[in-house]
């Protein structure tokens, strides 16, 4: 009789990783005792940022407005075009001048923001 193995279908060998010991490099320090206390951690971060000057922000100086220049150019050239209409048809030209000047003034100084 031929030799027979003890177990014809052996169980697979269990594989696992060995437990690793590691050094804690980022240990909590400073003001926060408990690393999970968010208020202390945020306060510590804020104090560090204030000491480093990261929260000292100065707003940029205001830029010069171009609104007056654009208003005057639109008034001059728009009125020149409408004066030609006044020569051709005086009633419609005068009405166009009034509507244009009042509308442009209202839009530039009342509706639009400073740009």
What letter string, H or E per element, gives the SSE order? Answer: HHH
What is the rounded distance between the termini?
A: 103 Å
Which band does the percent of strand residues land in? under 5%
Number of strands: 0
Question: Largest beta sheet, briefly?
Answer: none
Structural class determined from secondary elements: mainly alpha
Transmembrane segments: 71-88
Keywords: Membrane, Transmembrane, Transmembrane helix
Region (Disordered): 1-33
In words, what does this structure look like?
- This protein has 3 helices and no strands.
- With 115 residues, it is mainly alpha-helical.
- It has a domain of 44 residues.
- The termini are far apart.
- 0% of the residues are buried.
- The model has no long low-confidence stretch (mean pLDDT 86).
Key attributes of the depicted protein:
115 residues, 3 helices, 51% helix, elongated, membrane, transmembrane
In short:
The protein has 115 residues and is mainly alpha-helical.
Layout: helices, strands, pairs:
Blueprint lengths: L37 H15 L14 H22 L1 H22 L4
Helix pairs in contact: 2-3
């Amino acid at each position: 009789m031929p030799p027979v193995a003890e177990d014809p279908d052996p169980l697979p060998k269990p594989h696992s990783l060995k437990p690793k010991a590691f050094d804690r490099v980022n240990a909590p320090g400073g003001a926060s005792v408990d690393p999970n206390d968010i208020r202390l951690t945020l306060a510590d971060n804020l104090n560090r940022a204030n000491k480093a000057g990261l929260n000292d922000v100065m707003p940029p100086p205001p830029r010069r407005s171009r609104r007056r220049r654009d208003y005057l150019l639109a008034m001059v050239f728009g009125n020149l075009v409408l004066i030609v209409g006044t020569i051709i048809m005086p009633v419609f030209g005068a009405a166009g001048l009034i509507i244009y000047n009042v509308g442009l003034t209202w839009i530039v100084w009342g509706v639009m923001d400073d740009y």
